[in-house]
Amino acid sequence: MYKRRIPFFPLAFLVKMAIQNGGVSLGRIHVFILYLFRYSILEPFRLLEVFIYDRKISRHELAQPPVFILGHWRSGTSHLQNLLYQDPGNTSTTIYTGLFSDNYYLTRPWLKKVLNALCKLFKAQYSIQRTDMDLDIPAELDTGLCSACSAYSYTWGHLFPKYFEKWMKERVLLEDEAAAAGWITEYDFHIRKLSYWSKNKRLIVKSPGDTARLKHLIKKYPGALFIYIHREPFEVFHSNQYLWSVIQKQNSLQKITQERINSLIISTYELLLRNYLHQRDLLPASQRIEVRFSDLRDEPMREVRKIYLALGLGKLPEAEMAAFIGANKNYKASSYTTPPELEKEISVKWDFAFKEWSYKKPGA
Length: 364
What we know:
Helices cover 57% and strands 7% of the residues. It has 18 helices and seven strands.
């Protein structure tokens, strides 16, 4: 944590990460230069924010326990986060506070307006969610950890996918006690930072890696609430192929093959969900609920009402929820085909998930 006080620490850290994680692919050098430019030009705001706010944030106590959204990437976690974000009493990481997590206290009042205006002018798209870009869209907390140049973020695995499995093992499984302690300390700082900035609103936390870190989260936040969302496995697989195509095009500093991507999706899904099932009973029954994505998609108000009732979240803000649902009712599922050999591999390796949540395999 003390390293944040060192001038231009993020620049040195980013260069170090590139050296230690296989370098930058030739076709991605321009992205790396953009990252370096971002950290160079905003360094004065980062340093000033550290000296003004760090101690205040560290002393801040959460007024209410966080709500953690669990589930593999593309299982419906973003849709659920968007719904819960409509509650005026809730807050969450957004694209802006995620990308500029090291300086958003000082830059958000003016820079967000400028960037949103440019996005609108040039009709920029938020490809991950297939919608118009708006920096107020909710996003992953781990993105903010990465943007703050924390060594404890698994998002480095998306930037340096040649070492993706290493990042999943070290920053999601957290088998090393020192790594686990370091991660929860920095994660908690960003949770407190969001809480302090929002004046004690209830925090909705979404980072898929949390699905396998329940024992650490419930220990740190004994009163925390958890919502696990699951989706038909083959839909998850193909949606993750799309996610990886966006990451490779826009964010990653290394190019990997489609075969490698397929392998990472299959192994990561198994890692996350098996660990979730292994740790699920550590959570008190009154503090957790499981939701099926198809139910949330088809009957969002009904399902959110169930969540509020089961977890004791108070009065459902029906007007805000209905407005959001009405504006996003034209969702269309993408079609896909799975090659026979890949279909067989997924059916075998993800068999436990098909059984646990009662999904039918193709041809069954």
